[in-house]
Every structure is written in C-alpha cells, then in structure tokens.
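for ur thesis appendix - NADPH:quinone oxidoreductase family protein. copy paste whatever u need, i formatted it the way the template wanted (i think)
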Amino acid sequence: MRAIQIARLDGPQAAEVVDIDEPGADGAVLIDVHAAGVAFPDALLSRGLYQYKPDLPFVPGAEIAGVVRSAPADSGVSAGDRVAGLTMLSGGMAEVVALPAERVFTLPDNVSFEAGAGLLFNDLTVHFALRTRGRLAEGETVLVHGAAGGIGTSTLRLAPALGASRTIAVVSTEDKADIARAAGASDVVLADGFKDAVKELTGGRGVDVVVDPVGGDRFTDSLRSLGVGGRLLVVGFTGGEIPTVKVNRLLLNNVDVVGAGWGAWTFSHPDYIREQWAELEPLLASGKVSAPAPEVYPLERAADAIAALENRTARGKVVVALR
Ligand SMILES: NC(=O)c1ccc[n+]([C@@H]2O[C@H](COP(=O)([O-])OP(=O)(O)OC[C@H]3O[C@@H](n4cnc5c(N)ncnc54)[C@H](OP(=O)(O)O)[C@@H]3O)[C@@H](O)[C@H]2O)c1
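the 3d part is after this line
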C-alpha cells in the first residue's frame, strides 16, 4: 500500500510517499482509508520535538476516515461501513489502517470522508476542554486563539452547541478572519491588541472562557480578558513559548487556569471517548454542529500539508486524501 513515511527528523519535508506492507487484521478493524487528518503534533513529530517519539521510520497521522474492509463480530461496525478512526498519534497517513474497535466511530451520512478525517482529534479535544475541564455554561462567551486553525475552527463550530451564546475568534491576519467567520465566529479580532478589542466588545465585562492552543506572550492578556469566574483553558503551545502564571492574578480576579490534555484523560478514563461520541454524533448528524470544511492536499503533497501547520499558512483544518 501507499503511505507517508518519515525516516529522518529534519522537518515536514522529510514526509515521503513509500510502498509498505498492509497491516494484518489481527483482531482489529481493518479500514480502507479515504483521508487522513493533519494536526500540529505531526509537524512537531517530524522534528522529534513532541513528547511522544516513535521509532524511525514512522507513518504520521493521528486520525482517519474511510470504509471498513473487515471487522471482528463484536466490534460494532461491519464491512462497508463509513467510519472515522483515531490512531491517536501515528499511523494514519496510509491506504489501510488497523484500529482497535474502541477507536472506530460510525460516520454520519452527511459528513464526507475529508470532513470525517478532520473532526475527531480536534472536536473531542474541544468537547473535553469546554465541557469537562472548562465547565462551559449556557449563555457564556468563549474566546479562542488560533481561531483559523484546527482547534480554533473546532471551538467555533462546537461552542454554540455546547451552550455558548457568543464566540470571539482571535487570528493573526485579516486573511484568516474569513476562515473564522465561516466556522461560525460571532466576532473576529486580530491577535495584535486583542485585549482592548475584547474589552470593547464585552462592554468591559470580559469573557467567561478562553481556549488557548497558542500560549506564548498572549497569555497574560488572555488572563486580563477573563471576567469574574472566568476559565483559561490551556490546550497547546503553537506560539512556541510555555507561559508562566503569576498566581496573584488568579486570586485578585477569581479566575482559573485549567489544563486540558485530552489524550492523557482518555488513558485514565477508558469509556470517555465513547461517551463523547454519543453526544457529538447526533449533533453532527442533525447539522446542529457543522462538519469541518478542511483544506485537502493530495497524498503526494503530504509534506506541504504538514508544513502548512508549521509555517502558519494553514487555513482551517488540513487533511490528506488517500483515495
Ligand atoms: N490538549 C490537547 O489535548 C490537544 C489536542 C490536540 C491538539 N493540541 C494542541 O493544540 C495546538 C493547536 O493544534 P492545531 O492542530 O489546531 O494547530 P493549527 O491548525 O496549526 O492551528 C494553530 C494556530 O496557532 C496559531 N499560531 C500562533 N503562533 C504560531 C506559530 N508560531 N506557529 C504556528 N502557529 C501559530 C496560528 O493562528 P494565527 O496565525 O491566527 O495566530 C494557527 O492557526 C497544538 O499545540 C497541538 O499540539 C492539544
């Protein structure tokens, strides 16, 4: 089968198309992959900068969508079913993958393979961050950084269905504002000077929740943008720098900084992903939550697809087409 392989750790351009053996079923669900999602960890993995370091060579890709080729009788899916699946951190960018049944999910008919390949990783993270860690309540306002990225567009799509009455998207350029608006943002502000813009938009009250996949030097202004009882959800550090918190700010303003590490949570809560999908799947099927509208790259350009996240040119979620 054709697959993307990374054999050296000098960045996204190391990602090459190769021919390798198909995996055996061996008690797993075998899936003919139509598309694979690209996420920020793929760029970090290509440089050996992620906390998880697979042996070389490895196939990148944390999530896929495709058609079941074969499945164990008790897996809940059968040959021919349209599914999305999580490899979690590597193995997805290949024409065939074998996944344990608990990481395979039936795709609603109205969600394309490309959209399906781009939704699990981010939507489940955002659902976890807003619902479980962020305690999002009905009528609250959510601000999201990196709003035209994967986690960002996912937040904009999901937050209203989870209760938010307003979403404020923070992007670095006007060009990215359109992506955030298309994903459903109520308001879009530029990263440069976002604190003052948020103050004005909220009449000085501040927001209830900040979703932060960026970190870096925006962190303190994010804390300052929270209203009383607000929560800042730490999701990632695409900005590179890991910020520090002066805890007197938390005390003075009664705000929380909350870690939201979805992968680690799923390891300590084995039924959690199923429970999440039981809530998300009907929202997608009914259209209450729109499917992602990803940028699709052909397999031959997987390296460019991964690079787009590293060099900040990605517009929305990025996926690679396998078929
Ligand atoms: N906590 C969890 O469980 C979990 C799960 C999944 C992903 N993550 C993390 O979430 C983060 C976002 O992932 P993603 O897939 O959404 O990435 P993405 O699609 O590349 O989006 C990230 C956004 O970060 C912004 N950014 C700011 N400074 C940047 C820089 N120096 N380089 C690149 N981007 C920069 C960009 O928006 P602007 O240009 O508009 O600023 C970009 O749109 C990553 O750190 C990832 O590891 C965490």
